[in-house]
Amino acid sequence: MYFVKKSVCSLCQKTLLNILYHQTKMQKSWTLFGFCNKIMWPSKRILGCGGVKNDRVTCHSLKLVSTTTKGTIAQSFVKAIPKGDDKLRLVCTNCNYVVYSNPKIVSGVVAVSKNRDKLLLCRRAIAPRAGYWYLPAGFLESGESPEQGAQREAKEECNAIITLEGLCGVYAIPKIDQILMYYRGQVINEYDIKALAETEEVNMFSFDQIPWQQLAFPANTRAIKFYMSHPFDNTVETKKDNCFNFLSFFLPNIIHPCKLNSGQVV
After folding, report:
1. Entry's Pfam families (predicted)?
2. What's the pTM?
3. Cβ contact 28:17 at 8 Å
4. Whole-number Å distance between alpha carbons of 96 and 46
């Protein structure tokens, strides 16, 4: 059961800005009722009061319901264009608090051996693209830098300890609201790498043996090829991917190479 402290204006911030849920036994408390909003969490059902799954609200608004003994009080967020803005946002109908939807940051590493003749790749054990090879990467955690995130992901996914050497590439994928940052790095414990919870297999590939047709994501291909063309300098590639193909994620038997638009810069 999920609750947030009873408040009107701060409710907006605690629920949507920081996504903080407080379990409490207070008689006057707020509980999420249910919603269907493409900006926040599309088509997601959540537990309501008493642990019962509630039906989704059929409009594009987020509703919060108070479980006070004095009756039901609804708090709602509607899509509107705030004053001075030019985009639709979620706006609180009571206090006019505006919720901004920002992209997720993914941090990863193009990690090579000490001799720079092999590349570290992991075979995914989880969706999306389970069974395909990818560069160690993942979403940033709160409170860490992109560099720390890249090193943490390499450690979590294949027990690799990485020394970073600088940024390799930054890729924006607007269709899924993600910004990918790949660093250059060296594996300093090459003989200790192993498959962990999120990986089926780990390998150090020679550059002439990279399984290009089995790479999980287009950005992996882009980052590796850029590294190979700039192995010893600090050049950073920044691209915006306008040809992102969702089929490559959800149809495991079909591989759709993505042709990036090289004329656009993030």
Report:
1. NUDIX, Zn_ribbon_Nudix
2. 0.64
3. no
4. 25
| Residue type (1 letter), 96 | N
User: pLDDT for 23-82, tens place per residue?
Assistant: 233 333 333 333 322 223 322 323 232 233 333 333 334 444 444 444 444 557 788 999
Residue 219 in contact with residue 129, Cβ under 8 Å?
no
CA pair distance 198, 177, nearest whole angstrom: 23
**What's the pLDDT tens digit per position in 119-135?**
999 999 999 999 999 99
Token pair belonging to 5: 């402290």
With H, G, I as helix, E, B as strand and everything else as coil, classify residue 9. helix
Answer whether the bond into residue 82 is a cis peptide, omega within 30°: no
- Secondary structure (DSSP) of 100-121: P---EEEEEEEEE-TTS-EEEE
Domains with residue ranges and CATH for the chain: 3-99 (no CATH), 104-250 (3.90.79.10)
- Residues 115-150 as b or e (16 or more Cβ within 10 Å = b): eeebbbbbbbeeeebeebbbbbbbebeeeeebbebb
The amino acid occupying position 30 is W
Compute the distance between CA of residue 204 and CA of residue 182 in angstroms, rounded to an integer: 18
